[in-house]
Amino acid sequence: MMMCSSQGVDTCNRRYTVRTCTGSEDYSAVIGLVDAWWGGRRMSPMLPRLFFDNFCDTTFMAVIRDEAQPAEAQQAEAADTKQRDEVVVGFLCGFVSQSRAGEAHAHFIGIDPAHRGAGLGALLYDQFFKAVQTRGCTLVHAVTSPANTASVAFHKAIGFEAVPAIAPDAEGDERKGGTGKARSSSGASEHRSLGEQSGRVPVDRELVHIDYDGPDDGDRVVLEKRL
Amino acid sequence: MMMCSSQGVDTCNRRYTVRTCTGSEDYSAVIGLVDAWWGGRRMSPMLPRLFFDNFCDTTFMAVIRDEAQPAEAQQAEAADTKQRDEVVVGFLCGFVSQSRAGEAHAHFIGIDPAHRGAGLGALLYDQFFKAVQTRGCTLVHAVTSPANTASVAFHKAIGFEAVPAIAPDAEGDERKGGTGKARSSSGASEHRSLGEQSGRVPVDRELVHIDYDGPDDGDRVVLEKRL
Q1: Does the beta-carbon distance from B213 to A95 stay under 8 Å?
Q2: What is the ipTM for the molecules in this complex?
Q3: Is residue A138 part of a domain?
Q4: How far is CA A222 from the centre of its chain?
Q5: How many structural domains does chain A have?
Q6: Which positions in chain B touch A48 (Cβ < 8 Å)?
Q7: pLDDT tens digit string along A49-60?
Q8: CB-based contact A85:A76 (threshold 8 Å)
């Protein structure tokens, strides 16, 4: 399995490494963790294995060495040892759009709550931007829940802008603004909860794309960043 | 929006047309229907808009003309009229793997229960096979729930083979076979429910990939077909 784009940073006296996803092995390592990382919410249906299997070269893992391992093992460079000594503390799963030329999509970013606030989200995105830029992308999309104001604030902090929802009159879409539907969805469909930023600014109504991902808790904030 | 690979067949005195997905417009048309097509199960979290937006050139829609429209409107060829007169009765959403050379993945196939048994599933897959073959693919994967025996039977009928799960001893994976976990998951994570075949043959235990899509109802049958 190709391993590339690795980068180490020393933050808070811990050494984080961001590396390309290996596919199924990394999926197995994180899929049992994400619900807990989101405070018990059921996130796994939004992250089927297909994303790690088919888009592993634009999916990145943030790992630390397992501190319970002896120092010699931590320094071992053999691939099999490397896998055993690592603990995954975050990941960003994304892909190059197949039908939208020059565009990429960041689908899912998750950070272990115990490792939030250390800049891991920005580090993961930095690797993702480089990877998709190499593949010809100049625009990146991300989608989050309007209830997840921390995620919206984080994305804005790293250069994303929220895409306004089209006004009801412009499209004649009766669902938009006319149903009295609450603008803040429950967390059930929340894509990411970074907690990287503490800014809890309510999301403007005109930025909420009603029923974007379906009629059941599918309201979304759509973010984009030019590379 | 490019429209290609259209094909019409006359089945049961109805005219079905399979055409390439338009993206967001088609997503909005179907996302509110899929839960009902699955008998009320909540399927929409498995089909976020990103699939229709980013993989529309390998996603196909089965449509009929709206019979409530006057005959003249049915025959109109103008693109705007075409959209209004159509009723979506099925779709297959898939993509070319980005990181697995020569492979494609069929993610989600749904057929309106009122139009099952007419060969629409096979027709949709036929278009998908042609589309991904043109893009260099020689292998197609599909994943379904072991509880969905109709889907397993359908896929086998059109040439897929089930990929055996790796034996527990071979990988030392304690989750496999050692937990006493029930082999039939609930329908909550079921990817597709075609009802195209009536064969209700139980899925062999060795074909069930335990926790494939996560520990919560993530048991899956993995199918593949060589093109």
Answers
A1: no
A2: 0.80
A3: yes
A4: 13
A5: 1
A6: 46, 143, 213-214
A7: 999 999 999 999
A8: yes
